[in-house]
Request: fold
Amino acid sequence: MGVKIQTIKDIRIYLAKELKGIYPEQEIGAIAGIVIKAVFSMTESHQVYITDQIVSGSQAAKIINICRELKTGKPVQYILGETCFYDCIIRLNRATLIPRPETEELVDLIIRENRGTTGNIIDFGTGSGCIAIALAANLPGCKVTATDISDEALRIAVENAALNEVNVKFVNDDIFSIDSMITENADIIVSNPPYVRNTEKLHINKNVLEFEPHIALFVTDNDPLAYYRAILNKAARILVPGGRIYFEINETMGKSMSRLLESFRYTDIHVVEDINGKERIIKGTLYV
Reply:
């Protein structure tokens, strides 16, 4: 006999039972928190105190439908159509990558190191716009521009900027094009470009491979730094002397990325570990 969903506590029990063996136990708990937050419009901390809240029939039906989609491997963020990123609500679809916690760490580093700064920030390959929007919200003295080659991604990014009431200029621009649509100088450049090598697909979860946009994830094994090199070529024309650059990187490429930044005349190069101890961020300053 299945679990009857009558209270919020029952939702967690139901999802734990239905999703067992499909997702790790810890991930099921996190998914349940996200689903309850979306269906009931409540914070996860609030959920702890109202486990006995009654669930209506329509709410129970919504939970069951969400669970049905979760069983296919579809990420919960795509099912709900949005996620929370650095206290910003970010709408998503299959054209946009789901923001990761390590990308929040990248944003947090930039904010901490540049609080009170004025100037231009450019985010190359913005996707859903999450990085640019979070920076615009937390560095109000800066003008933020974000680029992407996907019209659909840019459409979502524009919606997200409006949703979070921030001013971001969005530009359709090809990272690999010599003729850049970016004309203004930049004081800070940031990017989270594709960096997962094709051979690493063997270790990628099914829900990522089947649902998230491969163009935003994967690079060839023979030139895994291609996007970074292209962005650095653009930066050579627009980043002001003494300007800073920040990248999210493949955890195995810290040393090769350091050498690449050195070859473009960057100093104060630092590889930063994420919360899991992986080399996930690199930053540098353009030599004056």
Remarks:
- DSSP finds eleven helices and eleven strands in the chain.
- The mean pLDDT is 92.
- Residues 63 and 119 are 45 Å apart (CA to CA).
